[in-house]
Amino acid sequence: MPTRKEYDEELKVINDLVEAMGQQVLLAIDRTNVALKNLDVVSANAIMKNDAMIDAMETEIEERCIKIVVKQQPIASDWRKLASYMRMIGDLERIADNCSDIAIYIKKLAKLKKAAAPSRLEEAFSDMRKMVADTVTAFHNTDISLAEEVVKADDVIDDLFEKNAEDIKKGIQENIDDLDAYLIYLGIDKYVERMADHVTAVASWVSFIAKGELNIMFTDRYTKESETK
Amino acid sequence: MTEVKNEKKARVEVSQSLIRRARAVDNIWTVVFYLVALFFLLLLFAFAGYVIIKGFTGAKPEMFRFDRNGVGNYFFNTVYLVFLSLLISVPIGVMGGIYMAEYAKDNAFTKFLRIAIETLSSLPSIVVGLFGYLIFLVATKSQPNLLVGAICVAILSLPLMTTTTEDALRSLPPSYKLGSMGMGATLRQTIQSVLIPACVPRIITGVILAAGRGFGEAAALLYTTGSDTNIKWNPAAWVNPSLNPFNPLRRGGTLSLKIWTSFTASVGAEDVANLSSAILMIMVLSFSILAHYLEGRIKKKMGDTK
Amino acid sequence: MSEKKATSAKFYVHDLDLFYGSFQALKKINFQIAANRITALIGPSGCGKSTFLKTLNRMNDFVEGCKITGDVQLDGRDIYTSGMSEIELRQRVGMVFQQPNPFPKTIYDNVAYGPRIRGVHRKSELDEIVETSLREVGIWDEFKDRLNKSALGLSGGQQQRLCIARTIAVHPEVILMDEPTSALDPISTMKIEDLAVEMKEKYTIVIVTHNMQQANRISDTTAFFLLGELIESGPTQDIFLNPQNKKTEEYITGRFG
């Protein structure tokens, strides 16, 4: 059998594209963070415009994966990679969408009187940002332990979400006029939590590529919830 | 400029004439080879044709009779003797071939055995006849008879049967043997139920060839069968066993011996001798053609099923 | 994928070494073959998988200068040293070869060959065995009206299925298949693969194949051989999705011939 040069080259191209997409998502998160701090409408618009590019990346990677599976009938680690890529890019695209959703909120917030952001929103944001950055690194280095750390960090974000929600509740009680702004902050908080969920799934697939054991981390929030009154 | 052109033209002309020469020589040699082939054909036709024509043109009807002077009895003896010899040489020869192909190990003993068989096949037939005479007739104080002649002819055709069987077995696809032994058959079962049945056509061809050679055997029979024959076809006469055609322990001159005696015995028996030669020639030729025809049929049958 | 009750090992191989003269073709093979499963042996040419297969029914005995050390046990009895006759062994462990090899006999006589050499001579019994065997292989309807035709006139795929019928006519427990479909067209290959999967209910099947998709499709356990060694073995899905040994991964992804 030949050394499957064409196959190996294509696998590398797809791998690099997935990593590049991760970097783009990370970039979008950073821009969103800055735009949120400064309530920068121009940046918010740019973030939304950029989402189309990330969508296009997902489409291209998807197409390449499908083509190569049909052509080369991959097995073993080749297959694990390709199966994982196709799932990971879905979650990455969703994270990028969430950045655009936050951008919409930023534009709304800019029109309102400035209200106090929840005290730990910034912390949640940067924790989530770190999770995404670590996942990209773990993907690049095929680092299982780093991926597993990311999965564990999701609990912290869930916790922060609760605390932020408390803050927002207090803020509404104290300043009923700023209700609109607080509701928006609640929405942003929710999106941050969603993005953390998505990146946890991505990290599980990174682990699958390396270890070969399927162990997708779904949030256990619902199980916990269902067990309370 | 023209110098170069002329030089080139000259070179081309030289090489062209060399080619013409080579082709001419090739054609000459082709003709020579065809002539050689023609020579073989003509030789056979001339020889066989002459014998057969001479034999039958000088023949008188009474020569065909099955009596003392006719060739009928000799014809019967020839066939009967070869039949007896095959009864001996085919079983032993086939078993020898089976041994060589399936049981013999690759050692000095086998090599020696192979040499022995080869030597047997090139023994002068007169020597075998003498051997038969001394061992079977002199030692046992018997009269010359058909059986001893048959034994001598059998000895002569044993190597052919052995070699035919061995070659036939070796030419079988090894998958037959593996398939059979892989099912838990013993070697004996495999040989008996798969290998030999697959070889039967080739073995039959060998038998026919051996028969053809046996018909023409003369030197081995000279002292062993007796050159004349006196058999009666009336069963009433078989009270005297030596007159019974089916008794192998009687004298039984064959056609080849009749030719021999006719020339040495008396003048005027030439016609009988010629007829005997013609009949013998026809028997040998037809058996040879039959063997080739069968072989072709077998090849086709095995071939187009692949 | 329902897991039936734990299957006991049909073959137990321990520290098996095999030499052809001074060349060592198998090196310290330790392996178990489960009953009523399909076990696939894969590996590049010359890796010893066919040699190992032939050890299981002592067909290596026919190769001069072949020496074996180690244990090869069938149902707990060593097939080389316990005095088991090769005749009995080969009746219990049948073999299908790479090139279909029907005997130059009729279809009927091919299938009846095994029973006949075992002493079955009554026509009614033989008729029944022939029909049952051909039915099991799925070619009874195709052949029932030409049982007296020569087997050599059949197509490759038909011949191979006839050989399988011939093998099961003596009711073996194990069927060894040495690249049974490599000489056949894709449709015949598919028919024989389907047949093998059906047959594992009744028989233990060990198949040597150089076609990894085939091993992936039909086998329960896969063993990878390389240069006379058993590199890795395990449940087929695990071997093909997540091989533990790097050489296994390289071979099955086609990174080396």
Task: Describe the secondary structure blueprint for this structure.
The complex is a heterotrimer of chains A (about 230), B (about 300) and C (about 260).
Chain A: H1 5-38, H2 41-72, H3 76-111, H4 121-141, H5 144-174, H6 179-211, H7 221-227
Helix pairs in contact in A: 1-2, 1-3, 1-4, 2-3, 3-6, 4-5, 4-6, 5-6
Chain B: H1 2-57, H2 72-103, H3 108-121, H4 125-138, H5 146-170, H6 174-181, H7 187-215, H8 255-265, H9 270-303
Helix pairs in contact in B: 1-9, 2-5, 2-7, 3-5, 4-5, 5-7, 6-7, 7-9, 8-9
Chain C: E1 9-20, E2 23-34, E3 38-42, H1 49-55, E4 66-74, E5 77-78, H2 86-92, E6 93-96, H3 107-117, H4 123-137, H5 140-143, H6 156-168, E7 174-178, H7 186-199, E8 204-208, H8 212-218, E9 221-226, E10 229-235, H9 236-241, H10 246-252
Parallel strand pairs in C: 3-8, 3-9, 6-7, 7-8
Antiparallel strand pairs in C: 1-2, 1-4, 4-5, 9-10
Helix pairs in contact in C: 3-4, 3-6, 4-6, 6-7
Explain the overall architecture.
With 229 residues, chain A is mainly α. Chain A has 7 helices and no strands. In chain A, helix 1 runs antiparallel to helix 4 and helix 3 (76-111) packs antiparallel against helix 6. In chain A, 38% of the residues are buried. Chain B is built from 9 helices and no strands. Helix content of chain B is 73%, strand content 0%. Chain B is flat, with a radius of gyration of 27 Å. The model of chain B has no long low-confidence stretch (mean pLDDT 86). Chain C has a single domain, classed as 3-Layer(aba) Sandwich (Rossmann fold). In chain C, helix 7 (186-199) links the parallel strand 7 (174-178) and strand 8 (204-208).
Supply the key terms:
heterotrimer, B: 306 residues, mainly alpha, MetI-like fold, 2 domains, 9 helices, C: 257 residues, alpha/beta, Rossmann fold, six-stranded mixed beta sheet, four-stranded antiparallel beta sheet, 10 strands
